[in-house]
Write a structure and sequence with these properties.
The complex is a heterodimer of chains A (309) and B (523). With 309 residues, chain A is mostly helical. Chain A has 13 helices and no strands. Helices cover 30% and strands 20% of the residues of chain B. In chain B, helix 15 runs antiparallel to helix 16. Chain B is globular, with a radius of gyration of 24 Å.
């Protein structure tokens, strides 16, 4: 277990270096000139001003040198300075609680709704409620989630006035509820389908038959034996879903004006604010790697047959 | 005084400074919130801030533009020149910054020097290019050897002498820009901190802690030591949104009290909130520019044909649902010298358009039209493509879209391969500004590559004119000269709109479509 953990953590280093490199290169390759976008359209940038901006952000150095500057800073916990002269770490500090609140709420909704619907469908396999879950999830998967978001915003926020439509003024969880619901729609169909399939598979498994033969009650068999085993792939999917979820926040936070990490990334991409884009993306990659590790560790807890070493 | 009357009607006692501050928590005048685009508060230093209603609330420059588009003295007692090149500016007494420091001639000089000094990388620094000594602060390479504009001399606590590189009769208009606002001594101890929590000299001050990193709102408090017309509301919350549309949705749900509305939202607003909608033509023009470096557009008749083939009224009426005015010049009448009908080829005459094109040899090959990445521009350009196809019989037309910070450099480098749909707003409310930006040979926004000795001579005359009337006359003549050559075809003047909550009144839009924050009254 200990050596497994060490190996996984060590493996994170090349992955992290590789992803920051790719993101950095992608931002570097973005069309448009950061100096010009900093000045704004139609503004004249004098050579001296341009030179000062370039020197400040090492823009004249070759790409690899720029990247080296960045990575060595990162190793010291320095995320660099954004184009507004604010430390990127300050932007991250201000934004992450918002994204964490949104992600946590979304995750809970995904897990609860997904697993509940999956159980329902599995236990009523072939009957109308199963078909309803199947049909409903196909429908949801077919509609891009940002369209759902605009519709939900207009219906629940503007027309009915039940929820705040934007900003964080109403606090947690009220301000985050509709955005989280919209974002959860990304994961619920998959999780419910996986749960359904997994339960159906296990219902006929030998260990379930044995447990029932031992005279255990139906509920006990279902909860202790079927569900516990069936949730192993679901937990892993919930883990990978967090990755999609974090990228989903980029659009959802924009639509609902939540100033989280996604919102900042969206804005920074538009402004060619490379340091912020790379800084926040790196952080998201780090979170993703960490969650994956936790998920893999959870395997062992949920299913004793899986050994980590 | 007119402002005070409005305030009195609404039972606001703050006007004239004699307001009674009874009640503690709820200060006189109430509070409201406004939704604005993010860039409005991204920077709050005069040299970095864009032109916005928020900047206008925080600072008062030497001059201001009044509601009729005329330039009036604000902090300045007088702005005078005999040759339009050497200007003497005297200040009114009794003006203070929001930290109590008196506003002096030195406060202006310090602020201007900081903005023009290249290593400070202030986006508005280029606006000081007309002042002598700017070149020394912005050398082609290396660090500048001085950080003071030689053309700005402080000759007393309340007098300032400014020397321009060449005459400019509209200099008082230029001075009304946010970039020309003063900064107090405290600003220079920490310019980065000042950008987040500025100390201004306007009717409103930014309340601590200012703009937090990654934050999206600031609070403005009325500055009670303001010697000009005081703000009506005691407190304003400025919230930022990534797009106009998000701000408008928030308004509809009651989350903000004022939001600007554009495009489709403006149509929705005029149907749903007719009584709460304020609109005003913007001092700007949407135009189709011609790439004069492209030989296919060298013939004037081709350019005329393109212009005559576009049905401006149809675009305005159906596509923009009336929220624009068909243009026959480069600026509407909301600015001094605007509203002229200088463009003879701005009518709609498809038959003549076809004739002209045929006379010029017809059109051969394919045509690409360009615009910036923005929904409304794209929709309008699609309509133009259809009209050119139908009216000129050009069959192979395609359309290309680029982000704003790409299309301008590409145009200036002559890399763009066809006409382009763009927007140009007047830098200050005088036709001279619009002429210069669109057609001036040294302008960074003259994207058609137009050069005309006749135009330049008239602009020089306008710049050197000793009276405002003469200045306007020559600037309008210059505009007519350029329009006769038709380097671009004006299409329409956009209309800007703002919706406001029922409990607010006195919502007014400035010449660039910005809400005047201090005149808004809370009922």
């Amino acid at each position: 277990m200990g050596s497994y953990l060490l190996r996984r953590v060590l493996l994170m280093v090349p992955v992290l270096v590789g992803t920051t490199f790719v993101i950095y290169a992608a931002v570097y390759a973005l069309p448009g000139d950061p100096v010009q976008s900093l000045a704004g359209p139609g503004h004249v940038v004098t050579p001296a001003t341009a030179a000062a901006i370039r020197a400040h952000y090492h823009l004249d150095d070759p790409f690899l040198v720029q990247y080296w500057h960045y990575v060595t800073g990162l190793a010291h916990g320095d995320f660099g300075i954004d184009l507004n002269n604010t430390p990127v770490s300050a932007v991250i500090t201000a934004s992450w609680p918002i994204t964490v609140k949104l992600a946590a709420l979304t995750w809970v909704i995904e897990a609860v709704a997904g697993i509940a619907l999956g159980c329902l469908a599995a236990l009523r396999a072939g009957r109308p409620s199963d078909l309803a879950v199947l049909g409903g999830s196909s429908l949801i998967l077919g509609v891009p989630y940002f369209i759902t978001a605009y519709v939900a915003q207009n219906l629940l926020g503007v027309k009915l006035g039940w929820f705040p439509v934007s900003g964080t003024d109403a606090g947690w969880p009220l301000s985050y509820l509709v955005p989280a619901l919209c974002l959860a729609l990304l994961g619920v169909p998959e999780i419910s389908r996986l749960t359904r399939a997994s339960i159906l598979e296990n219902l006929g498994a030998d260990f379930v038959v044995t447990a029932t033969a031992k005279g255990l009650s139906g509920t006990r068999v279902l909860l202790r034996h079927v569900l516990r085993t069936s949730l192993v792939p679901v937990v892993s999917m919930l883990g990978t879903n967090l990755g999609y979820l974090l990228s989903g926040t980029i659009l959802i936070e924009g639509i609902f004006n939540l100033p989280g990490l996604g919102y900042q990334v969206f804005q920074s991409v538009q402004q060619h604010d490379g340091p912020t884009v790379v800084g926040i993306s790196t952080l998201l990659v780090l979170v993703f790697l960490f969650v994956n590790l936790v998920v893999d560790l959870l395997y062992g807890v949920l299913d004793p047959r899986i050994r980590l070493d | 005084m007119a402002l005070c009357a409005v305030g009195a009607l609404a039972a606001v006692s703050a006007c004239g400074g004699g307001g009674t501050q009874a009640g503690g928590a709820t200060a006189d005048g109430g509070s409201y919130s406004i939704g604005v685009p993010t860039w409005y508060i991204a920077h709050l230093t005069p040299g970095r801030a864009g032109f916005s209603g928020v900047a206008d609330a925080i600072w008062t420059p030497l001059t201001q533009v009044d509601r009729s588009g005329k330039v009036v003295d604000a902090v300045a007692r007088s702005v005078r020149s005999t040759d339009q090149r050497h200007w003497t500016i005297t200040l009114k007494s009794g003006w203070k910054f929001q930290n109590g420091e008196p506003v002096t001639a030195q406060s202006f000089a310090d602020s201007w020097n900081a903005a023009a000094y290249a290593p400070n990388t202030m986006a508005n620094g280029y606006l000081f290019a007309g002042i002598e000594g700017y070149a020394a602060l912005n050398p082609p390479d290396g660090k500048p050897t001085t950080d003071k504009l030689s053309g700005v001399r402080v000759t007393g606590t309340d007098t300032l002498e400014v020397t321009l590189t060449r005459p400019l009769s509209t200099f008082p208009y230029v001075l009304a820009g946010t970039a020309f606002a003063p900064m107090p001594k405290a600003a220079f101890k920490n310019l980065a901190g000042y950008d987040r929590l500025p100390i201004g000299n306007g009717p409103y001050q930014v309340a601590a802690p200012g703009l937090a990193p990654g934050g999206q709102q600031i609070t403005l408090k009325r500055f009670d030591g303001y010697p000009g017309a005081k703000g009506h509301a005691a407190q304003i919350t400025v919230k930022t949104y990534q797009t106009d549309a998000t701000a408008f949705t928030s308004f509809r749900s009651g989350a903000v009290d004022i939001a600007t509305a554009s495009g489709n939202d403006l149509s929705t607003a005029s149907r749903t909130y007719a009584a709460q909608l304020v609109t005003s033509p913007t001092a700007a023009v949407e135009y189709l520019g011609f790439p004069l470096w492209d030989r296919r557009f060298a013939d004037l008749r081709v350019r005329q044909a393109f212009s005559l083939a576009i049905d401006r009224k149809a675009i305005v009426d159906s596509l923009l649902q009336g929220h624009a005015q068909p243009a026959a010049g480069i600026a509407p009448d909301v600015i001094a010298g605007g509203g002229g009908t200088d463009c003879a080829a701005c009518g709609y005459d498809p038959a003549r358009a076809r004739q002209l094109l045929a006379a010029a040899g017809g059109w051969h090959g394919s045509l690409t039209l360009w615009t910036k990445q923005e929904p409304e521009s794209q929709t309008v350009l699609e309509a133009i493509v259809n009209q050119l196809r139908t009216n000129l019989g050009i069959t192979s037309i395609s359309l290309k879209v680029q982000p704003t910070d790409q299309i301008y450099p590409n145009l200036l480098a002559h890399k763009t391969t066809g006409p382009f749909l763009l927007y140009m707003g007047a830098a200050y409310p005088n036709i001279y500004s619009q002429d210069d930006q669109l057609f001036g040979s040294s302008s960074g926004t003259n994207v058609t590559g137009y050069k005309s000795a006749g135009f330049d001579a008239l602009m020089d005359k306008a710049a050197a004119a000793t009276t405002t009337a003469d200045g306007l006359r020559f600037a309008r003549q210059a505009g007519r000269t350029a329009m006769a050559d038709l380097p671009l075809a004006p299409l329409y003047y956009p209309v800007s709109g703002a919706v406001h909550a029922k409990r607010l009144s006195g919502v007014r839009l400035g010449y660039l479509g910005d809400v005047d924050l201090s005149s808004v009254t809370v009922r």
